[in-house]
Amino acid sequence: MTYCLSINVERGLVFCSDSRTNAGMDSIGTYSKMHTFAWGGERVFVLLSAGNLATTQAVVKKMYRDVEQALVPNLITATSMSEAADYIGMISTQLQRQQASRDTANTNFEATFIFGGQMGDSPPETFMIYPQGNYIHESGEHPFLQIGETKYGKPILDRIIKRDIDLERAARCALVSMNSTIRSNVTVGPPVELLIYERDSLTEGRRLFLTEDDPFAKLISEKWNESLILALENLPKFPWEDAEAETSEFKLALLRQKHDL
């Protein structure tokens, strides 16, 4: 299993991914699921992958090779983000069919991708590309996308992520979402990769590689845990708790009064 997410806000894009892959308890590995393709000042793309590792690696390899060999279409010839997303979906479905035709063990070769970036003066966009090759945008109300083990990290995104949120705050929210998922599911694990892209910069942005022992990652986790405990303590009391507290305070006052006498 894996967990990847993207956030699209007014100031730019955030991408976050774990690095754990597994094919059973005896076959657990670490592979980067975040891939960048950048032509400075012209276009920047980020691809996050989930699903069959052979498929995702083959898709990324072909994307690089098509550019190197000037095969059409490729990421440079695409005239829009949606055209680039169509291109990736086409590659993915073709490779899935090829691998399935050679398979004798009923292996699932499906792969899902989050694809985002910016081309020239066009606004940044993000897409979720399904195994069938079709795709969707993020919604205006909830401007984020998730693939893989999504349920543990979604509540914080639903509550916090809006289009006008500050870019760095959105990035910290992405790390909290990832941290919650890692704590709840052993199939998702570090190192965690985080990429923060500033709108209209047309550069690769700021990229962090956070290991399990990384001081910043550990501090994020500790502060989030402390905040959750404090928030729980500050929730309103049940009516009977207040009544019991008042009774206890009254009894204590009487005991003090008797003691003074």
From TrEMBL:
It comes from the Bacteria. One of its GO terms (cellular component) is proteasome complex. Keywords: Proteasome. InterPro entries: Ntn_hydrolases_N, UCP009120_prtse. This is 20S proteasome subunits A and B.
